[in-house]
Amino acid sequence: LFIEGAMGAYFSGRQYGMLFSNPLSQARPKFYAAIGKWFTPTSGMRIWGDVNKPKGDKTGEHLVSVGVDYLWNLSNTFRGYDPQRRLEFQSSLGVNFLRQRKLSSFAPGVNVGLRAQWNANRMVALFLEPQLRVYEENEVRNNYTLAGYGFVPVGLFGMQLRFNGYTPEVEKEHFATRK
């Protein structure tokens, strides 16, 4: 079981060139939280939610997203399982629902992400995760569009707390064998 929280940005606007030439002018703050579980060393699942403020919005309208992702640990898949590994890479693929505060319905979307995660110890990890979220073109204002779909780039930097193996019995055994 793990929980994680992050701060980050989502990038909005209709000028593709601005995303690459001046990305900070297109960035909007985002707050993210998730709970998840690894079922095997290579695959897991997480349920998440986040909130952010659209660009140029003077009404106080916020975007709220909730989603569920399949997680694939690329490092464990291609290099073998190593519980002492400090740096690992993971990918995610999932579905999400986006709601603007003034609208009464949720807009379905899909998302894909790639994460670099530094494991400080067995319980704490720091991560950097770029994501791309896709919705129907008319569902999100001020987004990048192509072929009838709206694309929302997202960047997250956060911390993950893992609770694997943290039972009193394991900790007593670990404490008894330390010198």
In short:
Helix content is 12%, strand content 56%. With 179 residues, the protein is mostly beta strands.
Largest sheet, spatial ordering of strands: 1-2-3-4-5-6-7-9
DSSP strand content = over 45%
Mean of all residue-level pLDDT scores: 81
Write down the overall geometry.
elongated
Helix content: 10-25%
Uncertain stretches of 5 or more adjacent residues = none
Largest sheet: 8 strands, antiparallel, barrel
Structural class: mainly beta
End-to-end CA span: 29 Å
Question: Please, could you describe this protein's structure?
Answer:
The chain is mainly β. It has helices spanning 16-21, 74-79, 168-177; strands at 2-11, 27-38, 43-52, 63-73, 87-100, 107-119, 124-136, 144-146, 149-162. It has an eight-stranded antiparallel β-barrel with strand order 1-2-3-4-5-6-7-9. The two termini are 29 Å apart.
Name a few traits of the molecule.
mainly beta, elongated, single chain, 179 residues, 3 helices, 9 strands, eight-stranded antiparallel barrel
Topology:
Blueprint: E1 2-11, H1 16-21, E2 27-38, E3 43-52, E4 63-73, H2 74-79, E5 87-100, E6 107-119, E7 124-136, E8 144-146, E9 149-162, H3 168-177
Antiparallel strand pairs: 1-2, 1-9, 2-3, 3-4, 4-5, 5-6, 6-7, 7-9, 8-9
